[in-house]
């Protein structure tokens, strides 16, 4: 599975392949199914994989792994959407601030944007500019 893939689709695809093998007559034990599910997940889920591998083997069922992988996928998906929303808000606020800063300082005489460099070059009286 790729890092950005759909975990639910991946699990369904893996279980479908296992069902096809069983239909052909291949006997696959639950611990082998659990191992196949764990091996197939991306590196970004290594901490979850380690936590699941630390459990006793009799507790490690395909259903448990499927549920944990789905929970982790949903949690990351929600976290990404929250992060994107926060980033959009920060971008909007910083854009407003940058526009305000540029428009705050201008020459009341010629209406051009004010800059300190321009002020030094023109050597006009200070009353010519508003800050």
Question: Which labels suit this protein?
Answer:
131 residues, mainly alpha, 5 helices, rod-shaped, Retrovirus-related Pol polyprotein from transposon TNT 1-94
What this model shows, in words?
With 131 residues, the protein is mostly helical. The protein has a domain at 7-95. The chain has helices spanning 7-24, 30-39, 46-53, 62-104, 116-122, and strands at 106-107, 129-130. Strands 1-2 form a two-stranded antiparallel sheet. Helix 2 runs parallel beside helix 4 (62-104). It is rod-shaped, with a radius of gyration of 30 Å. The two termini are 58 Å apart. The mean pLDDT is 76.
Helix-strand layout with pairing:
Blueprint lengths: L6 H18 L5 H10 L6 H8 L8 H43 L1 E2 L8 H7 L6 E2 L1
C-alpha termini separation: 58 Å
SSE arrangement, N to C: HHHHEHE
Q: Oligomer, anyone?
A: single chain
Unreliable stretches covering 5 or more consecutive residues? none
Number of strands: 2
Sequence of strands across the biggest β-sheet: 1-2
Helical segment count: 5
Q: What structural category do the secondary elements indicate?
A: mainly alpha
Summed up:
The chain has 131 residues and is mainly α. It contains 5 helices and 2 strands, in the order ααααβαβ. This is Retrovirus-related Pol polyprotein from transposon TNT 1-94.
């Amino acid at each position: 599975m790729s890092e950005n893939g759909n975990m639910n689709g991946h699990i369904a695809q893996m279980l479908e392949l296992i069902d096809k093998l069983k239909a052909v007559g291949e006997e696959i034990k639950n611990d082998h199914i659990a191992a196949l599910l764990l091996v197939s997940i991306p590196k970004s889920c290594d901490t979850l994989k380690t936590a699941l591998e630390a459990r006793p083997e009799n507790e490690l069922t395909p259903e448990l792994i499927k549920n944990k992988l789905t929970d982790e996928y949903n949690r990351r998906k929600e976290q990404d959407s929250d992060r994107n929303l926060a980033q959009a808000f920060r971008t909007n606020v910083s854009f407003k601030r940058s526009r305000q800063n540029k428009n705050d300082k201008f020459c009341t005489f010629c209406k051009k944007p004010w800059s300190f460099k321009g002020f030094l070059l023109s050597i006009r009286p200070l009353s010519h500019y508003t800050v």
